[in-house]
Each structure stands twice: as C-alpha cells, then as structure tokens.
Amino acid sequence: MSVNEALEILGLHSKTSNEQINIAYHKLMKSVHPDKGGSAYFAQKLNQARDTLLNSHTNTQ
C-alpha cells in the first residue's frame, strides 16, 4: 500500500504526526472491527494503512 492510499483510507493529510495517525485509526476501527459487526477486510485495510504511515515516519526520521 502506498503512503497516499494509506492517508486516504485514514482520512489524513500528508503532514501528520504518529499521534494523529493513531487517533484516526482508533476512531475508524471502532466502527469497522469485526467484533463490532464490521468487516474483517476493512479492519485489515486500516491496519495496513496505519502500519504503512507509521513505518514511513520511522524511515524518514
């Protein structure tokens, strides 16, 4: 997954902090988590998006 795709999935802009990434992730995960009646596919995409963005921050610092 590209950084741009990850930003779009989480509804974020290019200049975001790790804290903003995690806040957006948790907010969205509450509604898509399979245990809450959501979709495993969407939960997986959120996980992938969060990991992509957090890894991109680690690699650029």
Write the layout of secondary structure elements.
Layout: H1 3-10, H2 18-32, H3 40-60
Family: Belongs to the TIM14 family.
Subcellular location: Membrane
Pfam family, one: DnaJ
Task: Provide a compact summary of the structure.
Keywords: Membrane, Transmembrane, Transmembrane helix. With 61 residues, the chain is mainly α.
Report on this model:
The model has no long low-confidence stretch (mean pLDDT 91). 72% of the residues lie in helices and 0% in strands. It has one domain: DnaJ domain (Helix Hairpins). The radius of gyration is 11 Å and the shape is elongated. The chain starts with a helix and ends with a helix. The chain is mainly alpha-helical. It is found in: Membrane. Keywords: Membrane, Transmembrane, Transmembrane helix. One of its GO terms (cellular component) is membrane. It comes from Candidatus Neoehrlichia procyonis str. RAC413. This is DnaJ domain protein.
